[in-house]
Amino acid sequence: MKKDLLLSSGFLVLLVIILGLAWLLPAGAETITGTAKFEPKKIDLSLPPPSVLESTIRFEEEKTENINVSTILLEGSLPPSATYNTSGGLVCEFNGQLVVNIVWAKIYHIGLLAPPYKIWMAVTGRLKDTAGGTPFIAETYLKIIVHYSPPPP
Question: How much is the average pLDDT of 81-86?
Answer without folding.
Answer: 92
